[in-house]
Structure prediction request, 637 residues.
Amino acid sequence: MTQSKGGTGLAEAEPTPEQRPTLARDKKDPTFDRSTRRLWPILAAPGTIWLIVLFVVPFYGIFAVAFGQVDFLFNTPIPAWNPLHWQFTLFGEVLHASVDGPFSGVWRRTFGYVFVSLVVCVAVGYPVAYYVARLAGRRRGLLLALILAPWWINYITRMLGWMTILDEKHGYLNSFLEHLGVIDQGVNWLGGYPGVVVLGLVYGYLPFFIVPLYASLDRIDQRLLEASRDLGVGAARTFWHITLPLSRMGLITALVITALPMAGDYYTNQLLSGSPKTNMIGNTIYYYLAQGPQKNVGACLVIQLSLVLLVFMAYYLLLTQRASKEAGR
Amino acid sequence: MSSLTAVDAANAAEAFQTRPRRLTPWRNPWRRPWFLSSITWLYIIWSLVPVAVAVQFSFNAGRSRSFWQGFSFRWYWQDPYSSLVSDKSLQLALRNSLVLGILTVLVSVPIGVLLALGLTRWRSKASAVSNGISLVPLVTPEIVLGSALFLVFTTLFTRIPLGMQAMLLGHVTFSISFILVIVRSRLLSIGPEYEMAARDLGATSIQALRTILVPLLMPAIVASAAITFAGSLDDFVVSSFLYGNAQAITVPIKLYSAARAAPTPALNALATVLLIGSTLALLVAYLVLRGRRKGGSEQALSALASFE
Prediction:
């Protein structure tokens, strides 16, 4: 420690190779120093404890409520925190209702809306991401900023705009269609059209789809595409054999990132349709948890939704692991 | 595969010999990609027009949120009863959102930065577990997080009533992971050398942290604070489960609950103010992240979307 002050000669300022490892690696390296080694867990402790108390415990709480009891007098849930006291009768009933009962329609509708929305996302999002990543040239920065803008504009604000456009009496869409003579009187677009809900879902989540896809298309080596074209392969076949396989991981990431919030959405359809005919599973969950008395039914549905989404997540994690292994080879 | 390319190469060579100048548009790899560029521009217009319409109607002179009756500032301050300045419920929402955003930043940024420092250097089995716990919230659907917190505040932590406190705890929970990711990527790019040099020169580990690492991390810390603020302002799902009653209403909740009820363009004015608030916060984050590096602007933009 005194070395820095002690006006040492040049010979000492440059340690011999034998000296340097002991100085730098064993004693002063922040990862190996004994006193510092204790510092890192202390720094990580507040965040870890916070997430255990307010993320892990609440997540466990869903199970405790779903498999717990109900106070018959007040109709409030009595969570079973001890897994030995878990009862699965209600969960079984709710599962039955989901597969082949009153909830089956809402599940089917949820998957239907999400599937159609994802197809539209691929059809619109892939060309856009491809153009911005590979062909935009000097406009790229501007385009990237414009594509990212909706990412950070409040979701509900973006839906307010659509409510104005689709309004029955004076909305821009009806005015336009009346002007063209397609319709005689205003269509109540906000009155329960599944197509409008899908439009809202696509509009809401397409930015989240485009960005990861953009990132993976951006990483493709231009020389691979040029080599393919130089060897005389057409544009379509180059795309099919080179670009698409190389962007596969980005495409899957984009699909997962978009599908997760879409499957749990309960506000888009409320704003753009408001009709029970277009309810999704998120509406049912929100109803049972926040409004209805049977919170444990809601908890059972959350577990079922998580399980369905977990299958996608596991598939995705498997693919990323395989991809990173291949990259490491 | 190889035979196919050979045939194609022969075809290409033939095409080149017979028609040296005239390539059909489809064959020309240097043609302007007018199809893709028009899809892209149409998409961008489509994605931004509804936002522009929402802002436009905040300046409507009439009461309607769909029929344009001329430009005015009526719904910002001129209307004596239901403008943004005179309607108490709108101001309450705005104040709650601001307070919640600021408190979320103040609580979550220190926790997140310390977590990033700890998890980057700490190597053990426990740190792997901690790392896993910290990253799972990023891939948890918001409805699952919202309902989990709702159930735990109504059954286990019953001392904390639904409302501002519960919302604060919820917002901090989903913010920590984002801060961790942003700060850690910066930390990894700095590397351990500066810190080692400080230790070699006699600084204690805490001194090295305070005088070397924290200043170097400052851009990431400021950016993550701004992103956290914007994220808290914009949050709808977690707040909708935890707000409890009308006293703790935030701007997105107000927009949602009033949108289909009896809305005036004051609602659009509220949305516009929210838009300005989060845009300013993100502009700060963008400028700080971009720094003075060449080509930093695209990196900064991608960091804002947190897909790194």
About this structure: Residues 193 and 199 of chain B are 10 Å apart (CA to CA).
